[in-house]
Amino acid sequence: MDFVIDILKKLNVVPVPLLDAQAQVVKARALMEANRAGVFVTLGKHEAGLTVSELAKAHDFSEEGAKVLLDALVGVGYLKKKDGRYRNGRWVKKWFLDPKHSLHYMLRLQMYTYHRLEGLGENLKSGRPAMDFHAMDASHPTPQQETYTRAMREAARLIIPDLMKRVDIPKSATRLLDIGGAHGEYSRTFVRKFPNLKATVLDLAGPVATAKEIMDVEGNPEGLDLQIGNCLSDDFGTGWDAILLVNMVHLFDVAQNLDLFKRCKSALKPGGSLLCVDQFVGISGQRDKIFALVSLNFFNVGGKSYEAVQMRELLAAAGFGRVEVKPLGLRTPASLIQAYA
Ligand SMILES: C[S@@+](CC[C@H](N)C(=O)[O-])C[C@H]1O[C@@H](n2cnc3c(N)ncnc32)[C@H](O)[C@@H]1O
Known about the structure:
Elements: H1 2-11, H2 16-37, H3 39-44, H4 52-59, H5 63-75, E1 79-82, E2 85-88, H6 90-97, H7 104-116, H8 120-126, H9 143-166, E3 175-179, H10 185-193, E4 198-203, H11 205-218, E5 225-228, E6 240-246, H12 254-267, E7 268-278, H13 285-301, H14 308-317, E8 322-327, E9 335-340
Parallel strand pairs: 3-4, 3-6, 4-5, 6-7
Antiparallel strand pairs: 1-2, 7-9, 8-9
The protein binds S-adenosylmethionine.
């Protein structure tokens, strides 16, 4: 039915701000809360579905509370209801319960985003971010930081399939540096695809601690080398075949990015590649609409979406001769900028 609402919005005959604000806030909170409480996991264990009473008992909800939550989730298409029993719909099965696609931590992260955006008014006045979300150099990450790193891993799984189709590095490549690589998911995928490759992940202490926790559980069959460091000041050494900068440039200002690009250029082998993935503006109108909203979030947390042309100029100023901009597929608005040293 969403397309009917879309048409009614276009015709301007429904109260659009109410649909966009009140309804979306409640829908978002319902999803976040069901995810946090584990409602989808509980329903996933019962093929025949659960009644309101059964679900209420399993989660220590009041019956009234369980009913309004379940009905709201039916209303927005996430659950199905038949003969008084509630079951997960296909969005839940794919995007919450399938480990390959799960956005569990992403939804947990949105609970922090929701609170953080309370400070938007102050942030717009002062022009300064509400918090330094990226200061993660404490060796024990806070629950929020750990959620963030695990959420970025889920986002990586959305980006990786399209990214790997567009990346152009030779099969003979042996050394990959993944700057700000956190959870290590990009490096793992590269090592699996390029059998001669060894990968080093460089990040602040907090995300590296989370990456170690992930490896403690899942092992490290790809032999990733985790390094604690600061990419704004550390020496990257030399002789890298490829350097990854995924979702990094939006964190830094122009001067920091120029300096980072120059040091990446010096660290790469001649002909090596800098692989920069981010939400670059000016590639398509549809993407730009999404980025306009994303940029407001970046502004609140500290960061910005850059124009692809500006990135080209900065990369040229850093000494990269050939630069290619490659938009990724439909699942993500991100694009790859590959610069050849
Ligand atoms: C938006 S996340 C991207 C993580 C990963 N590349 C991805 O795309 O999933 C930014 C990462 O950059 C790391 N980071 C921020 N500032 C850094 C710095 N100065 N040196 C190294 N890593 C940094 C953060 O700790 C975080 O893991």
